[in-house]
Design brief:
The protein is an alpha/beta fold and 240 residues long. The protein has a single domain, classed as putative 2-phosphosulfolactate phosphatase (Alpha-Beta Complex). The chain contains nine helices and ten strands. Helix 5 crosses helix 6, helix 6 crosses helix 7 and helix 8 packs across helix 9.
Amino acid sequence: MECTVVIDCFPESAQSYRDRYAIVVIDVIRATTTATTAVSLKRRVFPVQTTDEAFVLASSLQDPLLVGELGGNMPYEFDLTNSPAQVATLSDSHRPIILLSSSGTQLLQNAAGSEAVYVACFRNLSAVANHILGRHQRVAIIGAGTRGQFRREDQMGCAWVAEKLLAAGYQAETRETEDCIARWSGVGPEEIQVGRSAEYLRRSGQDQDLKFILDHIDDLHVVPSLVSGELIPAPGTVME
């Protein structure tokens, strides 16, 4: 039976794949990097779509951290912005994280109800591809997008996971998928530095997140999976 992979973008795209696909969500700068980092540190992580949803959920959890951004700005009464570098240095690992972002957590929630929902970033590219093999016949790898654009860092993440699946025998479903893989094959992660998302991080004084992303390439085995509203390690993946 032929196994296939397709690359797509934007939160609203998830509805096209929920019925027949496992969905991989990628938002390198920064939601899925933050989420993967937090799960690797054995934190509980709950992605949400709105501030209202975040505050309601916070009332049911013990001492949660409100982490995130909307439109690049940290919402009022949140504890910190959507920063993987900051999350990695926190010492209070017992506190669950409620994560909100402009695109990444929207896509995660839109993907809920599909065959499986996985989170990928530059930190766990191989782990995600290896976990999918033998488990899912159809895979949709979806970049979150930012301000209506399929940003280069998400294209790269999608392409690199898809390329690993193709190497294992999967077939690309669309010409656009083939083109994306070909464009970013063999390109180094440092190419994200010339993109608009990286420029925003520099302009807003958040260079530490750009450095964190570039310093942590394929270094984790954990594969976060969305189950009943929480990101948990997928079965068989190794916690760091």
